[in-house]
Design brief:
The complex is a heterodimer of chains A (368) and B (268).
Chain A (H helix, E strand, L loop, with lengths): L13 E4 L2 E2 L2 E2 L1 H17 L3 E7 L4 H9 L4 E6 L8 H15 L3 E5 L4 H12 L3 E5 L1 E3 L2 H11 L16 E6 L4 E6 L6 E5 L11 H6 L1 E4 L11 E8 L12 E5 L7 H15 L2 E4 L1 H5 L20 E5 L5 H4 L7 E6 L12 E4 L2 H18 L2
Helix pairs in contact in A: 3-4, 7-10
Chain B lengths: L1 E5 L2 E3 L20 E3 L1 H16 L4 E7 L5 H10 L3 E5 L9 H15 L6 E5 L10 H9 L3 E11 L2 E8 L2 E7 L3 E5 L11 H6 L5 E4 L1 H4 L19 E6 L8 E3 L4 H13 L4
Parallel strand pairs in B: 1-4, 1-6, 4-5, 5-11, 6-10, 7-10
Antiparallel strand pairs in B: 2-3, 7-8, 8-9
The chains are: A alpha/beta (368), B alpha/beta (268).
The complex binds flavin-adenine dinucleotide (2 copies).
One flavin-adenine dinucleotide binds next to helix 8, helix 9, strand 17 and helix 10 of chain A.
C-alpha cells in the first residue's frame, strides 16, 4: 500500500534523531531521548533512537538506551559520514515510510533545522519549529499552562486526545504558541538544544537496547553538493549549556570592555562557572558568539545566573529566565532584568562585581 | 541567468510588540519592516549581478496588498522585477502551505539551468526557518542553509555554511536554494535613481486563480489555513517571573549580605 501521511492510525512509536558530528553524539540527542521517554510512556509505545553515520560505533548506539531508547536504528553508510541534506533526508524518509512513527523529534541545531523542514516537506506532514515544551497527556499540558500562562485553564475546554502538543516561542519570544498536527503523521518537531533535561544514565537499560541495522539505499548521485571541508573553530568553545554557574555581561561593560570581561571571569572563577554575554556585547565584537545567551544564542538553566549590565530584553530573557537563581547588577533601578531576578543590586558593575567576588572568596575561606 | 529572492514583510519585533487579550499578535499596532535576513539575501543577489551583468534579480513575496511598498523598496535597491502573491485563500498558512504557494509562484517565474533561489534563513515573526528548505524540496533542488559567504564564478557556486562550532565549505550544483544569515553582508540602501525608477520596473500581482494550475495548488484545500497540517492550538504571552528581592545599597556590606543569603540557602 502506498505511504499515506493522513492514515494516522497506521503510525506508532516515538522517534528521536540522534545527531552525531565526527562520530560523537551531540548532547541534544540525549536530552530528546530523555524527553521522548516520557512521551512514549504516556502513549504506551516504543521509543527509538535513529543514528546515521559511517562506521557507527555500537557502544555509542547502546548508550542511547541508557537515556531511554528501547531500540536504536543504525543507518551506516560511507555517504552518511558527514551531514548532507540530500543523503540524510533520503535515508530518514525511507525509514519513516517503512516504519511509520507517530512522533519524530529532531534537535534544533543548525543541522536539525536544515534537515527537519526538508524531511517534513517530503513526507507531507507538519513541523513545529524550535520547541521548548512537549506534551501528549492533556492533564500534564493543563498543569504546564497553569504555571506558564494566564489562561484560565479550569474554565477552558480541552479536547481529550493524545495528539502531541508542541509549545514554542514566536515573534522573538513575545508570544508562546502551542501547535498541533492532528491529521498528519508523523507529528514532527525540532526541539531547542539545552531546554530538555537529560535523565541519569541507566546502565541496565542500555544493555537491553535493541540495535537494528537498517538496509541503507544511497548512491553518490543522490547527493547534489560537494562538501569541500568542515572547519572547527580553533578556540575551545565555552560550554554554556552544561555550566552550573553563568556570569553574563552586557552593554553595561562598554565603557571598559576588557575590564568588564575580566570582572566577569573573576566572579565566574570563584563560583566555578563560565562567562556568558548578551548579543549587544557579541555584536560589538567584545566576545565571541559562543558566549551569547538568548533567543539567537544558547538557552541555559544554571543554578546561578549573574547578569552584569544587562537590561533584560525579551530575547535575552528567552535564554536564561529558567535559571534557578538570578542575580542582577544594573545601575538603572528600572531595568527589566530586575523583574525576573531573584536578587538585584542597583549599582555600578565595575564596583559591585569585584566586591561580590571578594565577598564570595571570604565566605569560602570562612567555610574552609 | 536569474536569481529569485523571497522576501517577507514582517512586524518589527524589536520595537513595540502588541499582544491582544486573546493571545494573538496585534499586527495592526506594529510597524512593518522587510525581514532582515531577506535583505541579506537580496544584497547577495545584487552583488552577484554587479559582477555578472546578465543576471536578472526577481523578488517575490506572499502577503497582503500593502506588501507592495516593500517590493518597491527592493526594486529601488536594484532588483529588476517584483512579484506579489496575494489572495485571501493563501491566508493562515503554515510553512507547508506557504511553501506550496511560493513554490507555485517561483515555478511560474521559471527556474532554469544555472538559476539561484535565495531566502532569508528565518522570518522574525513566525521564526521557523522552515520555508526555505521546504521550497527547495518542492522545487526538487539542492539547498544550503545558514549561508555566511558566497563565491560565484563562471557559473560555479561555492558557499560557506555556518555551524555552531565552525563552518562547512560546500560546492553546490545549480539551480539551488540558499538561505542567508546576517553575517553574509551589509544590505545597501535604496539609491536616489533607484527610487525614481522603482515604479517603472516590471511589477506583477498574482491572485489565487493565477496560480491554481500549479501542481502545488490545484485547489483551495492545498493552500492557506485549509492546506496546513499544523494548527495553532493555543497561544499566550510568556510568563513574567515574579520579581525577587532588591538589596539595599551597592557597597561591600550589600555584597556580604547577598553572599550570606546565598550561603544560608545553600545556593553557594
Ligand atoms: C531577532 C532578535 C534576536 C535577538 N537575540 C538576542 C539574543 O539571543 N541574546 C541577547 O542577549 N539579545 C538578543 N537580541 C538583542 C536584544 O533585543 C537586546 O538588544 C540585547 O539583549 C541588549 O543587550 P544588553 O542588555 O547587553 O544591552 P542594553 O539593552 O543596552 O543594556 C545595557 C544595560 O547596562 C546597564 N548599565 C550600563 N552601565 C552600567 C554599569 N556601569 N553598571 C551596571 N549596569 C550598567 C544599563 O542600565 C542597561 O540596563 C535579539 C534581538 C533581535 C531583534
Ligand atoms: C505564533 C506562530 C507560530 C507558528 N509556528 C509554526 C510552526 O511551528 N510550524 C509551521 O509550519 N508554521 C508555523 N507558523 C506559521 C508560519 O509563521 C507561516 O507559515 C509563515 O507564512 C512562514 O513561516 P515563517 O514566518 O516562520 O518563515 P521562515 O520559514 O522563518 O522564513 C524563511 C524565509 O522564507 C521566505 N519567506 C517566508 N515567508 C515568506 C513570504 N510570505 N513571502 C516571501 N518569502 C517568504 C523568506 O525568505 C524568509 O526569510 C506559526 C505562526 C505563528 C503566528
Amino acid at each position: 500500500m502506498a505511504y499515506n501521511s493522513k492514515d494516522t492510525a497506521a503510525f506508532k512509536g516515538v522517534w528521536v534523531f540522534c545527531e552525531q558530528r565526527d562520530g560523537v553524539i551531540l548532547g541534544t540527542g540525549y536530552q530528546l531521548l530523555s524527553e521522548g521517554r516520557k512521551l512514549a510512556d504516556d502513549l504506551g509505545v516504543e521509543l527509538c533512537g535513529v543514528l546515521l553515520g559511517s562506521d557507527v560505533n555500537e557502544t555509542y548506539a547502546k548508550a542511547l538506551g541508557g537515556y531511554g531508547a528501547d531500540r536504536v536504528y543504525i543507518c551506516d553508510h560511507p555517504l552518511l559520514k558527514d551531514y548532507t541534506t540530500d543523503a540524510y533526508t533520503k535515508v530518514l524518509c525511507d525509514l519513516v515510510e517503512e516504519k511509520k512513527p507517530e512522533v519524530f523529534l529532531i534537535g534544533a541545531t543548525n543541522i536539525g533545522r536544515d534537515l527537519g523542514p526538508r524531511v517534513a516537506a517530503r513526507l507531507h506532514t507538519g513541523l513545529t519549529a524550535d520547541c521548548t515544551h512537549l506534551d501528549v497527556d492533556v492533564e500534564k499540558y493543563k498543569a504546564f499552562l497553569k504555571t506558564t500562562s494566564t489562561i484560565d485553564v479550569d474554565n477552558t475546554p480541552f479536547e481529550d486526545n493524545k495528539n502531541l502538543k508542541m509549545t514554542r516561542p514566536a515573534f522573538g519570544g513575545h508570544l508562546m504558541a502551542t501547535i498541533v498536527c492532528p491529521d498528519y503523521r508523523p507529528q514532527m518537531s525540532t526541539v531547542r538544544p539545552g531546554v530538555m533535561q537529560t535523565q541519569a544514565f541507566d546502565e541496565a537499560k542500555s544493555q537491553q537496547t535493541v540495535l537494528e541495522k537498517v538496509d541503507v539505499k544511497l548512491d553518490a548521485s543522490d547527493i547534489h553538493v560537494d562538501l569541500i571541508e568542515i572547519k572547527k573553530s580553533a578556540k575551545k568553545l565555552v560550554d554554556l549549556i552544561g555550566a552550573d554557574v553563568v556570569v553574563a555581561v552586557g552593554r553595561g561593560i562598554s565603557s571598559n570592555p576588557t575590564r568588564g570581561i575580566e570582572i566577569a571571569e573573576e566572579l565566574a572563577n570563584v563560583l566555578g562557572g563560565v562567562v556568558g554575554a548578551s548579543r549587544a556585547i557579541v555584536d560589538a565584537g567584545f566576545i565571541s558568539a559562543d558566549h551569547q545567551v538568548g533567543q539567537t544564542g544558547k538557552t541555559v538553566h544554571p543554578k546561578i545566573y549573574v547578569a552584569l549590565g544587562i537590561s533584560g530584553a525579551i530575547q535575552h530573557l528567552a535564554g536564561m529566565q529558567d535559571s534557578e537563581c538570578i542575580i542582577s547588577v544594573n545601575k538603572n533601578a528600572a531595568a527589566p532584568i530586575f523583574d525576573v531576578s531573584t536578587y538585584g543590586i542597583t549599582g555600578d558593575l565595575f564596583k559591585v562585581g569585584p566586591m561580590l567576588t571578594e565577598a564570595i572568596k571570604a565566605f569560602k575561606a570562612s567555610k574552609g | 541567468m536569474k536569481i529569485i529572492v523571497c522576501v517577507k514583510q514582517v512586524p518589527d519585533t524589536s520595537g513595540v510588540v502588541a499582544v491582544k487579550a486573546d493571545g494573538t499578535m496585534d499586527r495592526a499596532a506594529m510597524a512593518t519592516i522587510s525581514n532582515p535576513d531577506d535583505m541579506n539575501a537580496l544584497e547577495a543577489a545584487l552583488q552577484i549581478k554587479e559582477t555578472n551583468p546578465d543576471v536578472k534579480v526577481c523578488v517575490v513575496s506572499m502577503g497582503p496588498p500593502p506588501t507592495e511598498s516593500m517590493l518597491r523598496e527592493c526594486l529601488a535597491m536594484g532588483a529588476d522585477e517584483a512579484y506579489l502573491v496575494s489572495a485571501r485563500e493563501f491566508g493562515g498558512a503554515d510553512t507547508w502551505a506557504t511553501s506550496n504557494t511560493l513554490t507555485a509562484a517561483i515555478e511560474k517565474i521559471g527556474v532554469d539551468k544555472g538559476d539561484i533561489v535565495m531566502c532569508g534563513r528565518q522570518a522574525i515573526d513566525g521564526d521557523t526557518a522552515q520555508v526555505g528548505p521546504q521550497i527547495a524540496e518542492k522545487l526538487g533542488l539542492p539547498q544550503v542553509t545558514y549561508v555566511t559567504a558566497i563565491d560565484y564564478k563562471d557559473g560555479e557556486l561555492t558557499v560557506r555554511r555556518e555551524l555552531e562550532d565552525g563552518y562547512m565549505t560546500i560546492k553546490v550544483q545549480t539551480p539551488c536554494v540558499l538561505t542567508c544569515i546576517k553575517e553574509l553582508n551589509t544590505p545597501r540602501y535604496m539609491s536616489v535613481s533607484g527610487i525614481m525608477d522603482c515604479y517603472a520596473k516590471p511589477y506583477t500581482m498574482w491572485d489565487f486563480n493565477a496560480l491554481i494550475d500549479s501542481k502545488w495548488i490545484g485547489a483551495v484545500e492545498n493552500v492557506g489555513l485549509k492546506g496546513s497540517p499544523t494548527q495553532v492550538y493555543k497561544s499566550f504571552s510568556p510568563p513574567v517571573k515574579g520579581a525577587g528581592t532588591m538589596l539595599e545599597g551597592a557597597d561591600k556590606a550589600t555584597c556580604e549580605k547577598l553572599v550570606s543569603i546565598l550561603g544560608e540557602k545553600h545556593i553557594i
